Amino acid sequence: MEKPEIVTDLFKKTREFLEIFKKGEEFTQDLLKENERLRYKIVQLEEEAKAVKKGLQGSPVSELQEVLRQLQEEKRALLDRFKEVEAENKDFAAKYVEVEEENNNLANLYVASYQLHSTLDFKEVLRILQEIVINLVGADRFAIMVLDEVTNELTAVLTEGMDEKRMRKIKVGEGIIGDVARTGESYIEPDAEGFKPAHDLDPVVCIPLKIKERIIGVLAIFSLLEQKSKKLSRVDYELFSMLAGHAATAIFSSKLYSVSERKLSTIQSFIDLLSGKS
Q: What is the sign of the dihedral through the CA atoms of 266, 267, 268 and 271?
């Protein structure tokens, strides 16, 4: 009687085991299905992400970003060009100031030369020259010296800021001034600002006064005014050159006229004496 019960219990346990195994198989199948579903979902999401990314590249936002990038590049190029133009404008402004200064000096020199040649009075010529050298050249201490071709010496006929007693006669070829009178070439101290003369009569600028190749004297400048730039410019060199020619002509003409006037006056007095008018 006990054998059937044992068989029954064994059968029951076998069935329970099979049921448990079947449930495990079903759970495994469910896991596989869920895993497959998740893998498919991942692939789907990846495809959607690619599509979204591809869509953004051709979207208005992407186009605006590209336009913005181009505008930034153009802005940088315009800024660089602006800096170049600004530098060019500074150069043009400096050149304009230089040209304007040269034009003013030339205009002033034209007026001054007209005044020089409007009179044949020697003292008046020297007075006009004095104003020109002070106002146009910017000289503080200077002297105009005339050459005596008989003694071969330079004698001061006009001084400004100089002790006339110390302005002795200078032989042609003696010192800087005499050397300028000998060679006919201008002397301009390259370092006008730091100029320290070795001798009292060493000028910072010395210009020969000549008509063609004939030297009649020199203009010696010993110091410049404070408001005058210590560095001489190209305009100053041109001013010196033109002034030397006009000054030489005016001095020579006025001296020649003075001599002629004296001779004429002497002749007239002699004629009057002979005619019994005196």
A: positive
Q: How many residues does the chain have?
A: 278
The pTM (predicted TM-score) of the whole model is 0.60
Angle at 229 between CA 225 and CA 232, to 5 degrees: 110
* Rounded CA separation 43/36 (Å): 11
> Where do the H-state alpha helices sit in 133-214?
175-183
Q: What is the pLDDT of residues 228-256, one digit of tens each?
A: 656 676 767 777 888 888 888 888 888 88
- The string of pLDDT tens digits covering residues 172-189 is 999 999 999 999 999 988
Spatial separation of the C-alpha atoms in residues 15 and 13, rounded to whole Å: 5
- Please name every residue paired with 223 in a beta bridge, in sequence order, or none if there are none: 141
Q: Find, among 210, 218, 250, 220, the residue nearest to 139 by Cα.
A: 220
Q: Counting beta carbons within 10 angstroms of the beta carbon of residue 141, is it exposed (0 to 12), middle (13 to 18) or buried (19 or more)?
A: middle
Helices (H), the chain: 2-57, 60-116, 122-132, 175-183, 234-275
